[in-house]
């Protein structure tokens, strides 16, 4: 896989895992398979990455699918035995090492935008599995922000109001957000906290 070509003009989630046939990774890649439809609905591609070889991935996928009640792994899992890609993407775990003493991939996840730039990164210790609902939530905010001049407030969930970017004037906001917006009355008398729906 040529990474640049694979991303194309889509949002892409690239996620590394420390190793095949490991418990947390098996649950995570199973969850990625279970969430694949949610990502596809948003036009998002998935790409797994580890330093194990292709044959190991093929055998391990059987375990992932069995654990995940037959939900198929439909995304590619790239093999990076020389650790070239994980080094380029800063996905090397400084603490975890394999039997030969080489650093393992970290439990990292990058969301790459259509412009081929990393928009968001998560980095978890090997002992902590990812929260897939948070990945979906963060991805949704990135997509919405790329389509509208908005940001999402703390603990935002899909369907809730968003905030208008400070760079947008009230006149521009009236044109951009025909449903209107609500400005929060604050002690500073500044009108920077404006909520709307998109």
Folded structure, characterized:
This protein is of the alpha+beta class and about 200 residues long. It has two domains: about 5-130, Glutaredoxin; about 150-195, 2-Layer Sandwich (Antioxidant, Horf6, Chain A, domain 2). The chain has helices at about 5, 25-40, 55-65, 85-90, 130-145, 170-175, and strands at about 10-15, 45-50, 75-80, 90-95, 105, 105-110, 120-125, 150, 160-165, 180-185, 195. Helix 2 packs across helix 3. The protein is elongated and about 60 Å long. The mean pLDDT is about 95. Thiol-specific peroxidase that catalyzes the reduction of hydrogen peroxide and organic hydroperoxides to water and alcohols, respectively. Seems to contribute to the inhibition of germination during stress. Belongs to the peroxiredoxin family. Prx6 subfamily. It catalyses: a hydroperoxide + [thioredoxin]-dithiol = an alcohol + [thioredoxin]-disulfide + H2O. GO terms for molecular function: thioredoxin-dependent peroxiredoxin activity.
Concise overview:
The model has no long low-confidence stretch (mean pLDDT 94). The chain has 6 helices and 11 strands. The longest helix has 19 residues, at 23-41.
For the structure shown, list the relevant keywords.
Glutaredoxin, 4-stranded antiparallel beta sheet, 198 residues, 33% helix, 5-stranded mixed beta sheet, alpha+beta, Antioxidant, Horf6, Chain A, domain 2
């Amino acid at each position: 896989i040529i990474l640049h070509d694979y991303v194309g003009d889509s949002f892409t989630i690239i996620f590394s895992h420390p190793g095949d046939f490991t418990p947390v990774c098996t649950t995570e890649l199973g969850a990625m398979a279970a969430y694949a439809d949610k990502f596809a609905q948003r036009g998002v591609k998935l790409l797994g990455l580890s330093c194990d070889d292709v044959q190991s991935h093929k055998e391990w996928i059987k375990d992932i699918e069995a654990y995940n009640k037959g939900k198929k792994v439909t995304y590619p899992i790239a093999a990076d035995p020389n650790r070239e890609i994980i080094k380029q993407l800063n996905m090397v775990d400084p603490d975890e090492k394999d039997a030969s003493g080489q650093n393992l991939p970290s439990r990292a996840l990058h969301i790459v935008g259509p412009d081929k730039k990393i928009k968001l990164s998560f980095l978890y210790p090997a002992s902590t599995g990812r929260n897939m609902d948070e990945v979906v939530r963060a991805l949704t905010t990135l997509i919405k922000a790329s389509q509208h001049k908005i940001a999402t407030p703390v603990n935002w969930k899909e369907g809730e109001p968003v905030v208008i970017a400070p760079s947008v004037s009230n006149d521009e906001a009236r044109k951009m957000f025909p449903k209107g917006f609500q400005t929060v009355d604050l002690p500073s008398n500044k009108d920077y906290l404006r909520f709307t729906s998109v």
